[in-house]
Amino acid sequence: MLANEHIDNLSALLGAGGLLTGRTDMAGYEKGARYDSGRAAFVARPATAEAVSAVVAYCARHAIALVPQSGNTGLVAGSTPDDSGTEGVLSLERLRSTFDLDLDNRTLRVDAGFRLSEINARLEPHGLFFPIDLGADPMAGGMVATNTGGARFLRFGDVRRNTLGLKVVLGDETGTTVELGAGLRKDNTGVDWKQLFIGTAGAFGVITECTFNLERLPQQTATAYLVPRSPEHVSVLLNAMEEQLGTYLSAFEGMSGAAIKRTLAHVTALRNPFPGGAVPDYVILAEVSRSWPRRASEQPLEAALEEVLAEVWNHSDEPLDDAFMGPPQEMWALRHALSEGVKSAGYVVGLDLSFRRGGVMPFRARMREILASEFPDVEICDFGHVGDGGVHFNLVVPREADGSVNAARVDALRDRVISISVEAHGASFSAEHGLGRRNQHFYDRYTPPKLKSMAAQLKQATAPGPLGSTRLG
């Protein structure tokens, strides 16, 4: 329990409506997007960067733990308090003043509280978008803090690649505010300090403003479902598509048959697109796009994709078992519904893993054998960005009659899969969900001592107070 003196002082700093302390008022900030929940000492809701600085400084001076929270869409317990009731939540949802679009520079300077959907809705009339495609709808600050990737990473890269500047409040006793980068695409004048705050879950400072690179909205898009002849042919397909399409290839998404079946059963508005309704064991959603309207002398993109698929079909390795094109909106609707469909099947142990591009399918094959032997009641419902080596390795654990799950068994399952992925396959245990309490154990296990020592020194320099949910040092 936090002393009333601190509550009163923080309330005075933030003004009316800026501090929440009632259990009902705080409930939405204490629970994450999937399963994780805690108990907050308070929820601070600053409306300006100056107010963020004041709150962070006060908490640093009085050793009050503070967990920054953006859109709260993460799945690794990175934006919610623990169960102690001593941590405060610093919500960035009211940081919504700055939305500065620079058309000549093709950049956007935006406050941390704007959601991705609103950013892109405002950019659409200008023919631009922030090229991060997600099933969730996070806020700008959280996307940077977790270095979000998404379904079009293959073409546009992650948030790190598209961030040109940040404004950050450091976690020191004065709440020092620093501006890092100035919307420049080239700047070799020293250390690129903004990278320190991208993907580190708020441990080094609180992001209050971002400057993003923007891309031209696709004006032509074509999509196809590809059924590989075998798991080994997925890499052959990817390489052949890249060879034939180059940068036109904007997505190469893998979807397991188990995940598709669960989704079609749960989301009844979706149409089963597969011949005879028979869902293949594994399906690739491939997308090609151009950022300009079709020219009169130019082959339609659908025809170009169809021609490439015919060439791939006749490839010497015979990688395709089936392929068919369809309306992009309809094909993407199935891909974007997978998370909801899988979640309906039971308790989901969601593992966000990243491999070398050729390593995804061998890992899947190995885990199917191991889990069938050691956890036979667990269903693998994976999908993900196989074109960049990423996979959301979702494991559905049946619930007990009372709706509960065996927590120790879930921990053992998670530990078994991650240990094999990292130790035997050279994977990352956090591809794009960021760090959080759920990944702390694996960070502690797999991060070399020297790197943890370096992180601790950086933490001491930028945020000596208890900031963020993850211990990097």
UniProtKB/TrEMBL annotation:
The keyword Oxidoreductase applies. InterPro entries: FAD-bd_oxidored_4_C, FAD-bd_PCMH, FAD-bd_PCMH-like_sf, FAD-bd_PCMH_sub1, FAD-bd_PCMH_sub2, FAD-linked_Oxase-like_C, FAD-oxidored/transferase_4, Oxid_FAD_bind_N. The keyword Cell membrane does not apply. Its cofactor is FAD. This is FAD/FMN-containing dehydrogenase. It holds the Pfam family FAD-oxidase_C. It comes from Aminobacter carboxidus. GO terms for biological process: respiratory electron transport chain. Residues 35-217 form the FAD-binding PCMH-type domain. GO terms for molecular function: FAD binding; oxidoreductase activity.
